[in-house]
Write a structure and sequence with these properties.
This protein has two domains: about 5-75 and about 110-130 and about 250-275, 3-Layer(aba) Sandwich (Udp-n-acetylmuramoylalanyl-d-glutamate--2,6- Diaminopimelate Ligase, Chain: A, domain 1); about 140-245, 3-Layer(aba) Sandwich (Udp-n-acetylmuramoylalanyl-d-glutamate--2,6- Diaminopimelate Ligase, Chain: A, domain 1). The chain is built from eleven helices and nine strands. It has helices at about 5-15, 45-50, 65-70, 75-85, 90-110, 115-125, 130-145, 155-160, 200-210, 225-235, 245-265, and strands at about 25, 35-40, 55-60, 125-130, 175-180, 190, 215-220, 240-245, 270. It has a five-stranded mixed beta sheet, sandwiched between helices. Strands 5-8-7-6 form a four-stranded mixed beta sheet. Helix 5 runs antiparallel to helix 9 (about 200-210) and helix 9 (about 200-210) packs parallel to helix 10.
Length: about 280
């Protein structure tokens, strides 16, 4: 298997017809993929560690290098699609995502997208990342965990069901509910907003709540957005947000991808960095 084969296959595994804009082969050293170091993030030092461990490839999750870093903002269209799938009309969905997409576009524009790719080239290691496809695998796993919930499930039931996902059950992972409350709350319709590029912040959650969604799941959320949603709840507005945990949630899809590499292609995989605590859970 070559790096581009791995990238294309990961997209197909997630059900995508083409490779998302936030995933790429940043540098292909030309050797077959046989021993992979896989992590959520990476620096030049991490690439050196991977080489010292005898790895020919670094499989990165986040779009930190090459075209994936320059073009990340393009995948936020996926968040609009997910919102529409949950009943938000196109116009308010686009309006909720537009500030996020604008910020991402200018962040991409200012980024040093060539730095890590150049380090990989000089070190002599293949560097690629799989972002949206891995997140989609994680989203599907979360949906499967939620599938048995009864019609009148509570938010606490949602948290318990997600806690059955091995990575989310890790003792160092915390699932947070916004706003926090000891009182039972109906979950209502549930929208798992993973695999939209990033979290949708308060604006996307509010749009979903306004169109009949009772519970939104993100993998991470800023303190500022949490405060805005808490203020909204104090004003009497319904809607709960479940924050599943960034590293643990990203690890779901990455672990499924590594499992596929090991079992279907006999690729040796070393879980590293933020992925290491969740190794062996599948």
């Amino acid at each position: 298997m070559r790096a581009h084969d791995l990238l294309e296959a990961s997209s197909r595994l997630a059900g995508f017809d083409e490779t998302p804009a936030d995933s790429c082969v940043a540098h292909d050293a030309g050797a077959p993929v046989r021993r992979v170091c896989a992590g959520i993030n990476a620096t030049t030092g991490d690439l050196l560690v991977a080489r010292e461990m005898g790895c020919d490839t670094f499989l990165l999750h986040h779009p930190l290098a090459g075209d994936a870093k320059r073009r990340f903002h393009l995948v936020l269209a996926r968040m609009v699609e997910l919102m529409e799938d949950h009943g938000v009309p196109p116009a308010p969905a686009r309006a909720a995502v537009e500030p996020l997409a604008r910020r991402a576009r200018f962040n991409d524009h200012l980024s040093d997208w060539g730095h890590l790719a150049d380090a990989a080239k000089r070190i002599g290691i293949t560097l690629l990342n799989v972002h949206l496809a891995a997140d989609e695998l994680g989203r599907l796993a979360m949906l499967e965990a939620l599938r048995p919930l009864p019609e009148h499930a509570t938010v606490a039931d949602v948290v318990r069901a997600l806690g059955d996902v091995p990575e989310l059950a890790h003792p160092e992972n915390e699932i947070i509910v916004v706003p926090e409350s000891d009182a039972p709350r109906p979950a209502g319709r549930i929208a798992v907003m993973h695999a939209g590029g990033t979290n949708g912040g308060a604006s996307v959650a509010e749009a979903l709540f306004a169109h009949g969604v009772g519970t939104v799941a993100y993998i991470h959320l800023s303190g500022e957005d949490a405060g805005r949603l808490e203020a909204r709840a104090r004003e009497g507005h319904a809607g709960s947000l479940v924050v599943t945990g960034h590293m643990a949630s990203d690890a779901i899809g990455m672990n499924l991808l590594l499992q596929w590499l090991r079992e279907e292609h006999a690729v040796e995989c070393v879980a590293y960095g933020g992925l290491a605590p969740f190794d062996g859970l599948r």
